[in-house]
Amino acid sequence: LPDDIRRRVQDHPCYSEEAHHHFARMHAAVAPACNIQCHYCNRKYDCANESRPGVVSEVLTPEQAVRKTLVVAAAIPQMSVLGIAGPGDPLANPERVFATFRDLAAKAPDIKLCVSTNGLALPEHVDELARHNIEHVTITINCVDPDIGAQIYPWIFWQHRRVFGREAAAILIEQQQKGLEMLVARGILVKVNSVLIPGVNDRHLRDVSRIVKAKGAFLHNVMPLISAPEHGTFYGLSGQRGPTPAELQAVQDDCEGNMNMMRHCRQCRADAVGLLGEDRGAEFTREKIDAML
Ligand code: CLF
Ligand code: SF4
Q1: What was the ipTM of the complex prediction?
Q2: Rounded-to-integer distance, Cα 227 and Cα 156, Å
Q3: Closest ligand to Cα 92
Q4: Does the CB atom of residue 178 touch ligand 1 within 6 A?
């Protein structure tokens, strides 16, 4: 890796397999609203584009989020990254997200800031992300074909109206690809998450991987659809199952020829705290933080 990229990934637990043994991240759940509907989301749970969909995170105000981050950073010295990944879409809540970033950058400038989005509102926010020195952005890209997208996204909210079906998917795909290109042009590292949905996009993710790599994405993370009943099912389509571990690995292997694959994702909660795979969120509830201060 070139030196400047190495410097940027060496303490980010998601962007470097090696770093995840040594560095922790926390998520601040400051983003409740969403601007699209994914079939795999029932809105009661965290955004499944980045997070574990079966859990409900406590939404914080930006002020509460900054306080929590400072408390966690003092308690967990390996905590290097503050990510915002839900419970809805961060860029559907831009005031809350950027207020959090602004305040945190002033109080704890060493903490890296990270954000994950479905991409619909990304192009209009790229400049502001760059101004806040965000060096890591994840876009969830499940397809590059609107016919496949129409099976994943029943609607989007776009320019003050609801748009449905293939037209909605085409707009979402266009915004995602444009956002990706704009981020790469500004030197921001982009990770692409794809939710593997058997029978819907399993054969298509190789094309997604090839295209996002060609546009300069740094890393591709193919995650399994979690469709156990307690996590919500594939809403609108009955009987949709998640992939088996073997199916997931086959698709990851298939994409690998095209680009760096992330294989250590733990599908974190929108309020996760700690090393990947470890969740210390219960130690830092709002009540406990209030009691500590
Ligand atoms: Fe969070 Fe995501 Fe940033 Fe990481 S998580 S916003 S890039 S700091 Fe990481 Fe968790 Fe997988 Fe996400 S393991 S769900 S990839
Ligand atoms: Fe749900 Fe996330 Fe999809 Fe929005 S982007 S509908 S919060 S899974």
Answers
A1: 0.94
A2: 22
A3: 2
A4: no
DSSP classification of residue 108: -
pLDDT in tens, the chain (293 residues): 888 888 888 889 899 888 888 888 999 999 999 999 998 887 777 888 887 766 778 899 999 999 999 999 999 999 999 999 989 999 999 999 999 999 999 999 999 999 999 999 999 999 999 999 999 999 999 999 999 999 999 999 999 999 999 999 999 999 999 999 999 999 999 999 999 999 999 999 999 999 999 999 999 999 998 875 554 455 545 567 889 999 999 999 999 887 889 999 988 888 888 888 788 888 888 888 888 77
- Does the CB atom of residue 52 touch ligand 1 within 6 A? no
Domain spans of the chain, in order of start: 3-292
Would you say the CB of residue 50 lies under 6 angstroms from ligand 1? yes
Among 8, 25, 135, residue to substitute to test ligand 1 (most atoms within 8 Å of Cβ): 25
User: Tokens in use for 155?
Assistant: 């609607």
Tokens of 45: 């749970």
Largest Cα span, the chain: 52
Q: Look up the CATH number of domain 3-292.
A: 3.20.20.70
